[in-house]
Amino acid sequence: MIRSGPFRWQVPISEIEDIVQTRNPLSSPALSLDRLQVSYSNGRTIMISPADREGFIEAVENVRRRGNG
């Protein structure tokens, strides 16, 4: 679940194809320029700025390894 003000997006972990660090200034729900670009579902992307970027990536990888998501 991604939240930004009144907006909400849901990206199933099973659909995440790649997560990369970026400083792309394009508009997104990420409030910081220290962002993660999440690629999912056939070329779709969204940029986020979780409080703990490394922890977020590790949590996603752990869920994917277990086969949940």
Task: Please provide a written account of the structure.
- The protein is α+β, with helices and mostly antiparallel strands and 69 residues long.
- The chain has one helix at residues 53-66, and strands at residues 2-4, 7-9, 16-22, 35-40, 44-48.
- The strands form 2 sheets. It has a 3-stranded antiparallel β-sheet with strand order 3-4-5, with no helix packed on it.
- A hairpin with a 2-residue loop joins strand 1 (2-4) and strand 2 (7-9).
- The longest helix is centred in the C-terminal third of the chain and has 14 residues, at 53-66.
- The mean pLDDT is 88.
Strand percent estimate: 25-35%
Task: Report the principal-axis shape.
Answer: globular
Detail the poorly predicted runs: none
How large, in whole angstroms, is the Cα Rg?
12 Å
Number of strands: 5
Q: Give the oligomeric state of the chains in this entry, treating copies of one chain as homo and distinct chains as hetero.
A: single chain
What is the terminal separation in angstroms? 12 Å
Structural class: alpha+beta
What is the ordering of alpha helices and beta strands? EEEEEH
Average pLDDT, rounded to a whole number, is: 88
How is the biggest beta sheet arranged? Answer: 3 strands, antiparallel
Number of helices: 1
Report the helical percentage. Answer: 10-25%
- Strand order within the widest beta sheet: 3-4-5
Which descriptors apply to this entry?
1 helix, 69 residues, globular, alpha+beta, two-stranded antiparallel ribbon, single chain
